[in-house]
Amino acid sequence: MAYAFSKFGAEGWSCPKCQQPLQPVEVNVKYMGSSFFVELPGCPTCGTILVDEELAVGRMLEVEKLLEDK
Amino acid sequence: MQHHILESFEQQCTQDAPPACQCRCPIHVEAGSVASLVASGHVDEARKVLERHLPLAALTGRLCEGPCQEKCLRQDLGGSINLPVLETYVVTCGRPVKSFPLPGTSHRAALVGGGLSSLVTASELAKKGHKAVVYHLGPLGGYLRELSPQRLPPLVLQEAIESLRRLKAQFIEASSLTELAELLETFEAKDFKTLFIGLDDPALDPKALGLSVVDLESDPVTMGISRPNVFVVTQQRNNPHASAICGGKKASGSMARLFQNVSPGTAREKEAISETKLVVSLTGVEPAPQMHLADPLSPTPQEAAAEAGRCLSCSCLSCLPPCPFLRQRPGIYPKKLAREFYNNIITAFGNRSSNRFINSCAQCGLCGQLCPNGADLGQFVDLCRLDMVSTNHMPVSAHEYPLEDQVFSNSPAAAFLRHQPGTSESTYLLFPGCQLTASLPETTTDLYRYLSSHLAGGVGLWTGCCGAPGRWSGRLGLTGRTTEAMAKAWQQAGSPKVILACPSCRLTFSRQLPFVATIGLWEVLSGLELPPTAAPLPGPALLHDPCAARLDEAGQDGVRAVLTALGQEFFEPALTRRLTMCCGYGGLVDQAFPQMGELFVSERVKDAQHPFIAWCVMCRDRFNAFGHPALHPLELLFSPPEAMILTPEMPPGISKRRDNRLNFRHQMLSEFWHETVSEDPSMNLNIDIPGSVLEQFEEQRILVSDVTKVLEHAAQNGPTFVNQQTGHSLACLRPRQVTFWVDYEVRTDGTYLVHRAWCHRMTLPNVNGEGQESPASLEGFAKTGGRV
């Protein structure tokens, strides 16, 4: 199990369907044939995951580029 | 990629070929490196370089006659570099390099003669651990003893002989020539495998040694003679010292090969004196006279540095100055880059760290034009990109947006082909290209109206993308499908002559659709009267030829003819026509590596004193976006500015460009062909995106249409997340191989106010649209993240 990035910065967001505040959820992230587990904010009931802007344009983008050059 | 492709390219780029002086030197001393190090005061380093080539450097460094001076390119620019003086200085002042002889072997060589060639041969053999036994008559050194003590202090010769003794070379003084002559016949019986005869020792008489005239004709490569295992160096009139050193080195090399049962003459071509392949431009080199030396045998450090500083450090690098891609790292040139790219491509494990670099070449062809041998790195990069795509190693993100743009431009929403209204066949088809309709839709409309009223036989209109982005990115599948569809459309239209307004389209048509009859727009316009709206700028301009048109002389002439007829005052930049520069759009550099794209455009505008007139609309847009005003010449014909343009006009962003293409089709079909165009089936949400957010979209290449899709999905299915504290909602959708997130709020009037949007390519569970496939025309790259 590898953690390429872990982020929990989803203050105030909640799942409208389940009426649940978000909690850290371990999810399987995939790209370019690689897959790994990371901890991201998500709905503890339905499992919907939130990727905030800071993560998407920061560490996640870096990892995407690394995997593209593998 | 096969290795011979790399080899073929490497032969074209001769930057690392040895310069003329090194090729002329019998032992190939790197004179340029020595001079460069002396000039910068690194005398110890210079000595290291000398000792790589010169055996017994302290001795031989004082003896060089400087044959390199015959070929020095400074010869007619103040006089050749005085390398003998520099060598003397280096071996006098530089610290000797510690040598570590190899472990001893059982191989023994007999050396006859005590001259320079014998000493050199003994040194070379002894360093390799072989036993060298020198038989001599009289004192060692031969004619070296006749040199003045200033030229060769006796102590230096003595030191050289002592150093040989320390290397376990043995010196035996023979009593007579007869004894030596006998050795020639019996050396093998005395357990010597090879015999060397150094006739540069005046004490030796060939006849007395029993050598015939034939024996004196040694092979120029091995120094071997007709007798087996015997090597001879004779006294030469020209450059006697250099010849003796060279002969000794060659003979010792041959003997060492024999000891290892290797053929003495194989693969030694590079040891010969040769002509250089390096091409050096002397343009702009000012003459600089040779240094006057108070004492040539003992130059001061200042004198040596000044003389060394005259060296031109010969190199080619003619392609480097105007290209920011080649200049971005010191010490690189096309041959080196090609090998780096090749190694990147054949990487089996580990990172392919040059992927981005390969995608940073504009493939504009300028290096090929500047190279004396025509080495075009862009063509090599093209092969690299094809290989990366075929092996599924092309980064998805590098060209994703322009490829999708190509597919969009050729979709029914944006592409169409019609004969001139009221006709059923066309003599001409105007193909404006996808970027002209995106940047200047009204001007394109004016152009079509003008051509259709001035050319006989009917002028049809054909919009779409020629496929240049797909070809640049190495996607042959997409390129093939685009080409096939275009050929079919053209044939169904009756195969009319296609008027190409875009230089990149013209290049792409000539490569991908060579059977299609085409003509450049500016060749057509130069034969017509000017439109009544045409007017020149109130002041002068610089004419920029696009890189795609560097070989399109007819197009270049056509533009100039139109501007001249218009009365437009214009200047040619220093690099123009065949040598014009790229704006950074070529090869999709700007898409894969925006910072490199900026370097290209800044290189072009850095000395520009006037607005540009650029006949490629992408060049025009990029100059403007960079802050330098530019116009397309079509604007001068159909919508000329009333005053001199001093401030750049910001070109439309990526979303506006798509809207312009859609609207162009809509407007043209309505106005000219009176067709009813079906409305966009979208939900027509009222979306408010502030300007600052739109700027962020541009940077991240997020289209307004992507955001609209996300919001439409959220309107139907509810937001993904809500924030009670801020009242914002968050929606996400993965309509293609990218997941988009939109942070928004719904105002009381129902308007969707967008606060932020972002995207990523990684896939997560439970994302709307997960697994949704992208258009098949992207040949699977979008379906599978590049791993088809």
What does this structure look like?
The complex is a heterodimer of chains A (70) and B (788). Chain A is built from two helices and four strands, in the order E-E-E-E-H-H. Chain A has helices at 53-57, 59-68; strands at 13-15, 20-21, 23-31, 34-42. Chain A has a two-stranded antiparallel sheet with strand order 1-2. In chain A, a hairpin with a 4-residue loop joins strand 1 (13-15) and strand 2 (20-21). Chain B is an alpha/beta fold and 788 residues long. Helix content of chain B is 39%, strand content 10%. In chain B, the strands form four sheets. In chain B, strands 3-2-1-4-5 form a five-stranded parallel sheet, covered by helices on one side. In chain B, helix 1 (3-12) runs antiparallel to helix 13 (334-345), helix 4 packs across helix 6 and helix 13 (334-345) runs parallel beside helix 16. The two termini of chain B are 19 Å apart. Chain A binds chain B through residues 10-17, 22, 27-33, 40, 46-51, 53, 56-57, 60-61, 63-66, 68-70, and chain B through 351-353, 355-356, 395-398, 700, 718-726, 730, 732, 739, 741, 743, 756, 758-767, 785-787.
Spatial order of the strands forming the largest sheet of chain A: 1-2
Tally of strands of chain B: 19
Which whole number gives the mean pLDDT of chain B?
93
Content of β-strand of chain B = 5-15%
Cα-atom radius of gyration of chain A: 13 Å
Could you say which structural class the secondary elements and strand pairing of chain B correspond to? alpha/beta
Biggest sheet statistics of chain A = 2 strands, antiparallel
Content of β-strand of chain A:
25-35%
Q: Strand count, sense and closure of the main sheet of chain B?
A: 5 strands, parallel
H-E order of chain A: EEEEHH
**Poorly predicted regions of chain B:** 771-788
Major sheet of chain B: order of its strands?
Answer: 3-2-1-4-5
User: What is the typical, i.e. mean, pLDDT of chain A?
Assistant: 84
| Sequence stretches where pLDDT stays below 50 over 5 or more residues of chain A | 1-8
CATH topology call of chain A: Ubiquitin-like (UB roll)
